[in-house]
Amino acid sequence: MTTIDRVVGAGVDRIDGPAKVRGTAPYAYEQDPGEPIAHLAVVQSTVNRGRVTRLDPARAEAMTGVLTVLTPDNAPRLAEGLASDLPVLQSLDVAYQGQVVAAVVAETSEIARAAVGAVLVEYAAEEPDVVLSADRQDLYAPEQVNAGFATDSIIGDVDQALGAAAVTVDATYETPTQHNNPIEMHTSMARWDGDSLTMWDANQGPHTIVNDLAKGFGLDRGQVRVISPYVGGAFGSKAFTHPNQMLAAMAARVVARTVVFELSRQQMFSLVGHRTPTIQRVRLGADADGRLTAISHEVVEHTARIMEFAEQTATPTRLMYAAENRRTTHRLARLDVPPPTIMRAPGETPGMFALESAMDELAAALGMDPIELRIRNEPAQDPERHVPWSSRHLVECLRTGAERFGWAGRDLRPRKRTEGRWLVGTGVASATYPTRRRRAQCRISVDGRGRYTVEIDGSDIGTGAWTALSQIAADALATDLGSIELHIGDSRLPRAGGAGGSTGLASWGSAIVLTARDLRRRLDDEYGGQLPADGVSVDGGVEGEGPHAKTHSMHAFGAHLVEVRVDQDTGEVRVPRATSVYDGGTIVNAKTARSQFLGGFSMGVSMALHEESLIDPRLGHYVNHDLAGYHVATNADIGELDISWLDEPDELANELGLKGIGEIGITGAAAAVANAYWHATGLRVRDLPITPDKYFRELDLA
Ligand code: MOS
Asked: Residue 143: how many CB atoms within 10 A of its CB?
């Protein structure tokens, strides 16, 4: 074998790029099942809580082109025990507004949608209970919070330490409900062949969807195949099965045709989850030198009546800074809302907004530089698990960021810089996200001419996994990129976890590295290093977390430094420039990684300034349920972003030394913007988003 330069680390162009820009990469809606496709559209509940008392599909059924109307009366029965919102059309009870109460299947999507309006539905409704507040009497402690974290952590005596502290901060921060809005709406196309189900679907991991479909329809997993080669964005909502997959499969069974169900943008606001709103009280106590003695972070958030989802909001506070006395808690209110779910960096995203804002408030109270305050509280080891870090380069990120941004000489005092009408300020916040690895199986085959086929049920949700995994395989097999043929996004492939928790490359990449090692060993041992004429195939993988996950605390880190301009007449906020520096371990593809960091940070700016799903407290619906009313940052909102990373592979994390980078970019970003806003204006907006009206509200209060 010839020696080939390593391609891991290089900014290789996306191998799926040409097909995507030519429109030849088929997304779920564009698959060709080889027969005319029927279309599904749904009738959704207009009440949050109650029961359907009358449901008459007759007028819809009579429309030309309508194939059937599914209702709780005639829909196929699903197996008991399905989670949350998956038992679609199994009863007349209504648990949230937008819940599917009937579904029309028709020859075209236009007919299906028109027929939805012809289905007559009446309800017996109760008052909706949809408003979260911290003084509700029915708040409860869940058994644990998402990703298996403990609900509370209590170390030392926080109240005593706060009472004795030289300087304290006690502030409450709020983040609103937010909705996942990938460009590609959730889409499922289902076809039955006898008792075998094929589904082309937009998701973050085909195996997850197979499990729920098999369970719901009483099938063996081998009877269900989910195919998802291309996915047009996903931030958590596509990680789990939702009503759309169940409905497409039910309808295809009933009409004995291929059926496709593509959600509308409006339906994205009720059927596929959202990020819970949070109310977070943070208390910090420090000595006069800024050394933290107490950290308290108490979170109140909502969940749905039919399913508990507890966002792990306070978990980053368990590891960011040193302090002897510590407390984190999570309490939930069960409301008449659709089930919340994960959304890019669940936990860290809202939690770091509160913690990093409070750190800024503490720096101001101490008259100390906020970077210096963070460095002064850098913990030598994980302050709650009491184990060493696998690697932690937060201080280096902050220092490098300060240099690149031009932080030195910054006036600590707020509202000291103006340029014309603009108030100008700068702010900083840290970023963090856990490093994990999941079980993943893999098969690598080589033919007699040195062409490798790598098979693994990984997902590329737009992140660049197609390219990054090919790079990892090329290096692991000591060959060139052109000799690798990668197969992902199909449940027939060796089983792997989905794209979630920033675990993709750590899991799938490690599986590829280990399987490649086995294959090369076999070629050496059995074939004297030569390729046998009829090829060899090897199965391998990883079993989940590696040996150091228990003995070490593993996290990615980062620092954001942001300039904010606020129009002193209108309250309009602009972010003209920002610097982010990341400690993400090995960076596999410099180009696609940079795009992940850009996207994550932009989503953080979006959270800081725009994103908010408003629920009507009387009628219980999300009022701004489209992209005209639910604002997200666009290119024109994002200024110059200076993205860089440290060259620090984490030798203990996994075979590749990578930490996972899909989610860290958003963490801390909103706090950096809010802190810069304070520095510009002298006003502290603690409830996101920082819309122009809040400038005048705070001025009035000041
Ligand atoms: Mo990410 S919210 O784990 O898909």
From this structure: 8
